[in-house]
């Protein structure tokens, strides 16, 4: 089960999990909330997809506001529908692709399914403790196997033995020639290309990255390449017209602010998100990210394996993925001035970072090795039906 049907980090990981299954043992059926690109990719693999439109994720590390309480009610209300779906599809094992749909472990146990949950989140252990304890209680009582993508995710559930299966990285399979001169439409000899892969999601910090580039990096030979950053600013609907009118009095929504920054600087190039990113990373100068909430920065690990330095927010995952900060310039999370200073520090010590990454890249590559992580995943899943 996975509640998002767009192609993003969790969706890529789900596709990798499905591909890694031993088909002599498993026959995967994927439940999604809605139609979308992920459904198309799964069907290309010959995987059965069923829709569960009532599927609802619990609020992620949020207070018990009236709106969020209503979401918890929706989740509980949909459990019976999940139970019927599991019976109808004759499911033996329910695998949840993240912890935000943990309540569906309960209907799975009611119908006699074995259960597995893959934790991808970073829920701060000292925030919204009642909500976290509620999730923990569900998991401890109903989850047969717990998998986590890193050490911090595993620490969220200290009473359970957890298999740490890193989202494997295979950059060799993601190579496709994409010359920068063709992407930017100019001679890129001697140009420094900064890379941003976070898309339009505010939690990935598009606004801060764009602001820093436009306002702080004045070098005319610098460029910023943004993947998946296409702010949808529609003006036809009533809501769109209201937002447009608000811009006339100086109020801009997040998407409008992003759009204005992109249009203000012809050094910025925006292209769609692309899976075949290896050649792009190999040509870039530096990878930038500005996570506004802590979570795993897989793009930073991908960049390190390629030999590309990164500037990233300091959190437990960033420390783990950068070998305690050796392979990336880490700045105080949600601190814009610290972010700007980190970019300058990266530039000032660039060759040193390149040298360290070259020396340590193999250590990081082994942590995210495809074969070893697939083997651990397969063993963990197999153990749930043989215990």
Number of strands: 12
Query: What percentage of the residues does DSSP assign to strands (E)?
Result: 5-15%
Element string (H = helix, E = strand): HEHEHEHEHEHEHEHEHHEHEHEHEHHH
Strand order of the largest sheet: 9-8-7-10-11-12
* Oligomeric nature of the chains: single chain
> What gross morphology would you assign?
globular
Structure, described:
The chain has 387 residues and is an alpha/beta fold. It has two domains: 9-168 and 369-386, Rossmann fold (3-Layer(aba) Sandwich), CATH 3.40.50.2000; 172-367, Rossmann fold (3-Layer(aba) Sandwich), CATH 3.40.50. It is built from 16 helices and twelve strands. The chain has helices at residues 9-20, 37-44, 66-88, 105-110, 129-142, 151-155, 180-184, 206-216, 238-247, 254-264, 278-283, 298-306, 316-321, 336-348, 350-367, 370-386; strands at residues 29-32, 48-51, 93-96, 114-119, 145-148, 162-164, 192-196, 222-227, 268-271, 286-288, 310-313, 329-331. The strands form three sheets. A six-stranded parallel β-sheet has the order 9-8-7-10-11-12, with helices on both faces. A four-stranded parallel β-sheet has the order 3-4-5-6. α8 (206-216) packs parallel to α10. The mean pLDDT is 92.
């Amino acid at each position: 089960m996975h509640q998002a049907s767009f192609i993003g980090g969790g969706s890529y990981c789900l596709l990798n999990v499905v591909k890694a299954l031993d088909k002599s043992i498993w026959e995967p059926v994927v439940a999604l909330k809605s139609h979308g690109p992920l459904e198309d990719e799964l069907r290309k693999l010959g995987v059965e997809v069923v829709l569960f439109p009532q599927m609802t994720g619990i609020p992620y590390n949020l207070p018990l506001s009236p709106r969020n309480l209503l979401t918890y009610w929706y989740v509980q209300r949909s459990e019976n529908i999940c139970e019927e779906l599991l019976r109808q599809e004759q499911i033996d094992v329910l695998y949840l692709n993240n912890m935000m749909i943990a309540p569906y472990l309960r209907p799975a146990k009611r119908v006699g399914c074995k259960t597995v949950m893959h934790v991808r989140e970073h829920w701060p252990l000292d925030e919204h403790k009642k909500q976290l304890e509620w999730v923990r209680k569900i998991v401890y009582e109903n989850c047969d196997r717990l998998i986590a993508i890193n050490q911090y995710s595993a620490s969220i559930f200290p009473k359970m033995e957890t298999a740490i299966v890193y989202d494997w990285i295979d950059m060799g399979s993601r190579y496709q020639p994409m010359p920068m001169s063709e992407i930017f439409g100019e001679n890129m000899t001697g140009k420094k290309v900064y890379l941003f892969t976070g898309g339009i999601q505010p939690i990935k910090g598009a606004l801060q990255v764009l602001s820093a580039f436009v306002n702080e990096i004045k070098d005319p030979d610098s460029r910023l390449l943004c993947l998946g950053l296409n702010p949808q600013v529609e003006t036809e609907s009533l809501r769109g017209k209201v937002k447009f009118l608000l811009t006339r009095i100086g109020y801009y929504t997040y998407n409008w602010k992003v759009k204005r920054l992109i249009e203000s600087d012809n050094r910025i190039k925006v292209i769609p998100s692309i899976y075949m990113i290896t050649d792009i990373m190999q040509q870039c100068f530096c990878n930038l990210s500005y996570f506004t909430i802590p979570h795993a920065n897989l793009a930073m690990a991908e960049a390190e394996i390629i030999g590309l330095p990164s500037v990233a927010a300091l959190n437990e995952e960033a420390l783990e993925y950068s070998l305690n900060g050796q392979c990336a310039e880490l700045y105080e999370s949600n601190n814009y001035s610290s972010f700007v200073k980190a970019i300058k520090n990266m530039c000032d010590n660039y060759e040193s970072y390149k040298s360290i990454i070259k020396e340590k890249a193999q250590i990081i590559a082994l942590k995210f090795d495809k074969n070893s992580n697939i083997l651990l995943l397969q063993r963990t899943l197999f153990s749930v039906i043989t215990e």
